[in-house]
């Protein structure tokens, strides 16, 4: 996924109102003010204004007929009930497997 984030006139994306949460099933960036994001992600592609960036960690054998619906359902289960940019990656598991 290609992701470019810009916030505010200074172009500085990270402020005290932006947080990163990293846990087993996902990493989430949350910003109080909306971020302008240029993305090629599974969910939220294009130029969008969102407060959440979601990277779901999936098994390397992940196979789903509707990854968009699956990722949206996962986001909702994590308390994200608004528009977001979302992607999925199995990289961490692949690295752990060696």
Write up what this structure looks like.
- The structure is a single chain.
- With 98 residues, the protein is α+β, with helices and mostly antiparallel strands.
- It has one domain.
- Helices cover 18% and strands 41% of the residues.
- It contains 2 helices and 5 strands; from the N terminus they run ββββαβα.
- The protein has helices spanning 67-77, 91-97; strands at residues 3-6, 18-22, 26-39, 46-57, 85-89.
- The longest helix is centred in the C-terminal third of the chain and has 11 residues, at 67-77.
Structural descriptors:
98 residues, alpha+beta, globular
Summarize the topology:
Blueprint: E1 3-6, E2 18-22, E3 26-39, E4 46-57, H1 67-77, E5 85-89, H2 91-97
Q: Could you give the distance between the termini?
A: 23 Å
How many alpha or pi helices? 2
Classify the secondary structure makeup into a structural class: alpha+beta
Q: Work out the count of structural domains.
A: 1
User: How many strands?
Assistant: 5
Task: Estimate the mean pLDDT confidence.
Answer: 80
Major sheet: 5 strands, mixed
| Poorly predicted residue ranges | 1-7
Proportion in β-strands = 35-45%
Q: What is the N-to-C succession of helices and strands? A: EEEEHEH
Radius of gyration: 14 Å
* Morphology call: globular
Tell me the helix content.
Answer: 10-25%
């Amino acid at each position: 996924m290609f992701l470019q984030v810009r916030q505010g006139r200074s172009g500085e994306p990270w402020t005290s109102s932006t947080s990163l949460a990293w846990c087993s099933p996902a990493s989430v960036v949350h910003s109080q003010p909306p971020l302008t994001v240029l993305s090629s992600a599974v969910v939220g592609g294009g130029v969008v204004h969102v407060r959440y960036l979601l990277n779901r960690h999936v098994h390397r054998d992940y196979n789903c007929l509707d990854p968009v619906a699956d990722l949206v359902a996962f986001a909702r289960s994590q308390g994200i009930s608004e528009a977001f940019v979302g992607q999925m990656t199995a990289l961490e598991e692949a690295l752990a497997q060696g």
